[in-house]
Amino acid sequence: MMSRHSLLHAGLAALIASSAIVAAPKKTLADAKAFTEKAEQELLVLAIDSSRADWLKSTYITDDSEALSAKLNERMIGATIRMAKEAVDFSRLALTPDIDRKLKLLKLSLTMATPSDPAESAELTRIAAAMEGAYGKGKYCPQAKSECLDLEQLSKILATSRDPAALREAWIGWHAIAKPLRPQYERFVALSNKGSRELGFADTGAMWRSKYDMAPDEFAKEMDRLWEQVRPLYVSLHAYVRNRLREKYGDAAVPANGPIPAHLLGNMWAQEWENIYDLVAPPNADPGFDLTKILAARKTSAQDMVKYGEKFFTSLGFAPLPATFWERSMFTKPRDREVVCHASAWDVDFVDDLRIKMCIDTTAEDFTTIHHELGHNFYQRAYNAQSYLFRDSANDGFHEAVGDTIALSVTPEYLVKIGLLDSAPDPSKDMGLLMLRALEKVGFLPFGLLIDQWRWKVFSGEIKPQDYNKTWWELKRKYQGVAPPEERGEEWFDPAAKYHVAANVPYSRYFLADILQFQFHRSLAQIAGCKDPLHRCSIYGNAEAGKRIQAMLSMGASRPWPEALKALTGQREMDASAMVDYFAPLKKWLDEQNAGKPVGW
Ligand code: X8Z
Ligand code: ZN
Fold this sequence. Notes:
mainly alpha; 26 helices; 3% strand; binds L-captopril; binds zinc ion
């Protein structure tokens, strides 16, 4: 029989066993602060090691660089997950807003969570490194010729050839590189989902959607809302381009009211269409200049092109890039080793070790991409005084939008100012200028949306591995209105022929950036006092605009993104009306051209 005394003890013991909170010494706010500081210190060291190895792997792909980078990435991810789990201890405390936000960001900082099982964790990071490496090394070797073609060469064919057979061959040739990635991708999905679930997310897609200061489902709705704002613009452009392509390639090649064949749009993924400008240019509205030709005629080097980009930022009041940027960046494709050419911007020490990695070609397209990359670098440096967990953008769409916003200021008037153009075309050429921009920016919208539509469903299990390719093309057709150049069955794995799928980079950020950059541009043009149509406004040399950009960038991730957006634009909501306004004259013109012709697919 139990004495009263022991009964009491038994009760207490049960209580203690049922609640870890009571068993552990009570955590205080001071503990939370100390924990966060230590976590930031430790993670910074691990992240620097990981980014150094990642740089080596990306600029010199070998089995060893791949293995080392996978290992250091694994170490960093493992530590982040351990700390995110430990942070649960503080969840019942009333934390300061900063610590509360940091602990949330800790849990959200990964794009790939590894499972706690050590073998699975190692396997996942190795697969991730191997898939990116395979993409980087990808080549198409036409049997007829002895030389193999890399993505840059194949992309050049897509951009410049007007021979449907050559376009088709280059398209099919590149897409074959993704075929062997399918089993790895399938395993990657299973393992990364396992890691995400251990962290408390439904799956990896839900983890990605949780990064926007709102519930994951709400974010999906936000994407749909923005798409509905711009969809009519895309549909008008699509119909017009389809008609012009019918004139060029014939009615049999391009259907009157069906999807456009993906290999005819000037880009390997049909994601940006500016390379077919010559085929669709409004009659008599040619912008009057061709930046690619100007850069080539002047024998502009890759470094010169980057210098032009830097000069734009310094004209706004940003400090010049550090000497190490010029010493350590990779601007051109090395002749004697494999690299990941896909352009990227780095901040290796999270302070000032800024670099870009690009295989620059002397084209207008790469001129824009350079501005894009430098936008990342100037953002990274602007938030480097924040503590480690806040050294990131307001949301990832902001990171992608900064350089593009600057590139919107690359107007003819700006090119005249920097001596690349003799005189700016008069307003009669506006339709040509708008068309060129629309092919790039409006053409991109549905592509920016659909990649993660596919991946979210892959991660949630709604799309099964046996349907990977079929569902990919269903989404391409639904959103973009494009079709593959041939029947693409499940023997292919076309999604991984796109860098961000093979390298596991979330893509919704580019859709957001496409919209945000016009919102930023409209506000900045107003701050700079520009009274011209938006597409003729450049903020080059405007200190006031520079200050407002700096104010937003220097906040890093310290506050929810609506506050950062407000700092620059005064608005707290992402809003596509700036983009719609920018292209309004073109939309009117397109609809006139499309009158009486089929629209949609
Ligand atoms: O990946 C990029 C940048 C690096 S963050 C070059 N972009 C997307 C792509 O190439 O698919 C920029 C536009 C969209
Ligand atoms: Zn980017």
